[in-house]
From TrEMBL:
Taxonomic superkingdom: Eukaryota
Stored InterPro entries: Mito_RNA-Proc/Resp, PPR_rpt, TPR-like_helical_dom_sf
PANTHER family recorded: PENTACOTRIPEPTIDE-REPEAT REGION OF PRORP DOMAIN-CONTAINING PROTEIN, PENTATRICOPEPTIDE REPEAT-CONTAINING PROTEIN 1, MITOCHONDRIAL
Name under which the protein is recorded: Pentatricopeptide repeat-containing protein
PPR repeats: 172-206, 242-276, 312-346, 347-381, 382-416, 444-478, 479-513, 514-548, 549-583, 584-618, 619-653, 654-688, 689-723, 724-758, 759-793, 794-828
Alphabetic keyword roster: Repeat
Region annotation (Disordered) ranges: 27-71
Keyword Repeat attached: yes
Family: Belongs to the PPR family. P subfamily.
Amino acid sequence: MKSPFKNPSPIPPFLLRCFPSPNHLCSQPQTPFPHPPNPTATASHEKTTPDSHLTGKQPFSHSGNPIPRVTRTHSEHTRLTQTHVVNTLLRHKNDAVSALKYFRSVKKNRAFVESIDAFCVLLHILVGSSQTHKHAQYLLNNKFGSVHSGPAPVVFLDHLVDTSKRFDFELNWRAFNYLLNSYVRVNRLDDALDCFNGMLERGIIPWLPYMNILLTALVRRNLMDQARELYDKMVSIGVRGDSFTVYAMMRALLKQGKPWEAEGFFREAKAQGMDLDAAVYCIAIHAACQKPDLNMAGELLREMEGREWVPFESTYTTVIGAFVKQGNLAEALRLKDEMLSSGKPLNLVVATSLMKGYCKHGDTDQALDLFNKIKEDGLAPNKVTYTVLIEGFCRNKIVKKAYELYEEMKIMGIQPTVFNVNSLIRGFLEACALNEAVESGIANVFTYNIFLYHFCKDGKVKEACSLWKRMVANGLVPSNVSYNNMILAYCKVGNMDMAHTIFSEMVERGFKPNVITYSILIDGHFRKGDAGRAIDVFDEMLGVQIAPSDFTFNIIINGLSIVGRTCEAKDMLKMFVQKGFIPVCLTYNSIINGFVKEGAMDSAFRVYIEMCESGISPNVVTYTTLVNGFCKSNNMDRALEMHYEMKSKGLQLDVRAFSALIDGFCKKRDMVRAGELFSELQQVGLTPNEIVYSSMISGFRNVNNMEAAIDLHKKMINEGIPCHQHIYTTLIDGFLREGKLLLASNLYSEMLAEGIVPDVVTYTVLLNGLFNKGQLENAQKILEEMDREGVTPSVLIYNALIAGHFREGNLEESLRLHNEMLDRGLVPDDTTYDILVNGKAKECWGGKKAYREFHVSIRFLHGRINLPGCLRVMWDLYKKLQSSDHMMSPWIEDVVVRLETPSSVD
């Protein structure tokens, strides 16, 4: 054994903070400090010793030197020096139990102050014996059991390594793993990460279970960046992990709203043959529902069933809710039965989801039966449950029951929300409230005006006219409000002639139009795009001495912005402010929206700055408009700035703004960012629309990820979102590029079955794809279909046809198609001639290269002058060369002199 007294390791200065006295940090024997024979000092020391022992602080003499903790003889103190303790422990090196007993007995002696050397020696002894592994863990947990206890991680690692060398211990990695676990156990995650990195730097690879424990702790604390960094380091040292690793990383990605990446992580682990457990499958199902991809969720559930795994209750809850949201109530009910048969109880979230599904399908009886059943089973309905039922019954026009539930909700001590109240109001308006009021004889002109406005604001002119006749038939005289409502109805549908007719009738009957009447008319004309007539009505209002209101001013500013006169609207705003008008958020939003529509994003942003400086807080509409504008102008950085600023203020984008952001990133082929935004859109409770799906599908097609594109298409179909012609064309194009003709053909058939008529773009995609794959026969069928549908092929289609026949060596057919183009009035482009002469597209004609190509082309065709159409092509090339301002060689002049005119060439 090496002598512990030779070449002691130097101790870093910052280690001194960890121990009461620096004298106890080495293994050299320590000489007690001499004490002056001062009774006072001795008495003083004896008096302070107990307190200092309790506080853990070392008392000092007046000279500043440390004094011994207890008044003992010199021989007693020497026996408890650190060297003595270390040597005694080393004598029990092969008897871990005895070493532990000795250390515990020494710690009870108040003359002993624990050193790092003694602690490390004991730890090496304990981890060396299987009998004392748990004691080693307990020892470390005690040592690092609080926020500031124990030395810094790197310092302790160095001492563990150093003491193993000095005292001839085999370096046992168990001690280091136990240390890592101790830091995690008391939530000292920064120290745990330092310990992990320190171990790697010293060539010590942590054991996988302890890495998983640290990874899980980071995810639980939402330290996602640190978790990702930890995982990347695991991979860099060749540790791919196990089922626990996959679960932790997928959970982290889902917390970040990245279900696409979580699914990819799962698929990769599965492809590598990793032994995945039920927990991983459950979280993969959560990822599928979050995308959502319910086909995948169903497949994973079936796989779990095949392995006789029972999904978690939370997994059933998530999947059932997803199927209800999709509108697939039958599958949701089947999963509910499966959940109950597996021994899991029906929880409130699942019950509420199913009630919502019943109401959507108009089966309110089943919803009510389920509601009563859960109350009988002891589940207490919450605010969400009542809201779902009240809304569902109102939409199904069972307002009386909805109101009973509203009253029951209050009795149960659950405070209704404004949403509940609005549901009831809408339900009463759409039910028989008016009939009851009329039949009871209590309806007056004010009652009629309430219902009249309800119809007029939605432009329901027919219903409004019917109600008007009923009001007059009951002997009631319409009021100013009644006329204003009818004018509003006609303005909403753009029938300004009838709006003015009602206005004239109003005046003839002695009613005086007010500021609301004129404002409605002004707004109607602006919405029709007739700014001149709108301004005339405004001038007319001023002429009859009616003062505009803020409502009027806002209508004018918004109207001018709508018709593309935003600069004029901004000038009007300054003038209105001078007249006492106080702008609001709506005012600035109108101008910002006008500039965005005109593509003047700098002006729009300046108005936004002006708005903020004037003390008016932007709202959702402001940010949504700016985000949309910046995306359209391809300024994605500024669009994201607006998005983040909005989120920092607690505001949430609407579907239109998300759509703009997603489309922008899709066009930049940044599908990771697009996918993150797609997930965020759903997490905030919004539903992707047709435009969002179209952008995502086009984006995946552009990066050649047709698997993701078709998954989104299936998801659209499952959710009942209509798939338009552009989406089908995009998918067909993508599969044709990959050579998957059968999939492209199936999609084309599906499109036709949906009643969607292909356009020129669809046919162009089909013909290009088929010709590129040598499918001339199928391409011919598409051409025949175009003829039947009366669709005239475009230049692009003809180019595809000509190129296809040229590749097959059928030059005669290529030339015939060229002539057919001319007969149809289509002008061949450079690509057409490139194909005819060389069989491939070249650069645009121009410069010396073009001059050479013309010569080559005419020589080529001259050698085949007997083919039909050759002369015509040569003539076209000759005309093209003339227009290029290049001098023609005598040879070409000689050939062209012999060419007939185009008419005779035919």
